[in-house]
Write a structure and sequence with these properties.
The chain has 304 residues and is an alpha+beta fold. It has one domain (78-303). The protein has 9 helices and 11 strands. Strands 1, 2, 3, 4, 5, 6, 7, 8, 9, 10 and 11 form an 11-stranded antiparallel β-sheet that branches. The chain is globular. It starts with a helix and ends with a strand. The relative contact order is 0.07.
């Protein structure tokens, strides 16, 4: 009996040792993953001009992946006590690179902007004049690097404005130079060198109005010393004139849809899908509205 008990005890001890080793290694791996994610987050965030880092209350990592959830985050900025609060950040795919990840799929929920924040300086006066001191929305960013330098980006944003409406915008860009983006984040003037070669694949914007269009109309009418309805009639007359003068059915349809929306603001959807790859540099040479509509393949649908 005693002779057979010792091998069993030895096997049990070995099993317990293996379990403890696995638990210990798992704990070490979790610590390493947390530190790796935190380091790459700080590096990526600090590439934003003026941003000094990110602070958060809790970071959740499922299993052995670099996927994570970040709760109650705040972006910190140099030379200011202001912070950009974000309710939650979901990172679903993340492959570390150098300055920028090689692949990223991230959604920021509950991004809160207010007119007191320094990066809102240019919008502060009109937003306060229209009665919108704060904005809240979600932002989804995807990018994937193909080859050495080129990336494909997809950016989607949802914005909620209290008592004004809600909008969603998405854009897909191709042939983005990753090294150029890194340089442009460090020196914004470099965007003039990076953006012209970027190709617009498609874009989409939708907006459901809850009074913002009328407020803008009143504001512009007041600035020009005119009555709002007089201003609306002038806009509708101009859109009607453009629709009558254009022979391209697609362009005429856009002017007619815009007229229908200004006549009775509600929901509008604007799509852009160029018939051939169009660089952002080419867009700068499109002066006439009809050229922009045709070049970008714009279509508008309204649903009051």
């Amino acid at each position: 009996m005693a002779a057979t008990a010792y091998p069993r005890m030895n096997r049990l001890a070995v099993l317990l040792l293996v379990i403890l080793s696995v638990v210990l290694l798992y704990g070490i791996l979790r610590v390493v993953l947390h530190r790796t994610v935190n380091r790459h987050l700080q590096t990526s965030v600090q590439s934003i001009p003026g941003c000094s880092g990110i602070r958060y209350d809790r970071l959740t990592l499922p299993h052995f992946s670099l996927q994570c959830q970040i709760h109650s985050a705040r972006l910190l900025f140099d030379h200011t006590t202001q912070e950009l609060p974000i309710h939650q950040i979901d990172i679903r795919r993340f492959r570390p690179g150098k300055e920028l990840p090689r692949e990223l799929d991230m959604t920021l929920y509950g991004v809160r902007l207010n007119t007191a924040q320094p990066w809102m300086n240019r919008l502060r006066h009109p937003l306060e004049r229209w009665g919108y001191p704060s904005l809240e929305g979600d932002l989804q960013v995807k990018w994937k690097r193909r080859g050495v330098q080129q990336e494909e980006w997809m950016i989607e944003a949802t914005l909620q404005i209290a008592h004004a409406g809600s909008g969603t915008a998405s854009i897909r860009l191709d042939k983005v130079n990753a090294e150029g983006v890194t340089l442009a984040l460090a020196t914004p003037l470099n965007w003039l060198m990076v953006l012209p070669a970027v190709e617009l694949v498609e874009g989409r914007f939708s907006y459901e109005d809850q009074g913002l269009v009328d407020r803008l109309l009143v504001d512009q009418a007041r600035a020009q010393g005119r009555r709002p309805e007089e201003m609306r009639r002038a806009i509708l007359a101009d859109l009607h004139r453009r629709a009558q003068a254009d022979t391209d059915p697609a362009v005429r349809s856009v002017w007619q849809s815009m007229a229908a929306y200004f006549r009775n603001p509600g929901r509008v959807q604007i799509g852009a899908r160029p018939p051939r790859p169009t660089t952002l540099g080419q867009l700068l040479w499109m002066r006439q509205p009809r050229d922009i509509i045709r070049g970008l393949g714009i279509d508008i649908a309204t649903n009051p």
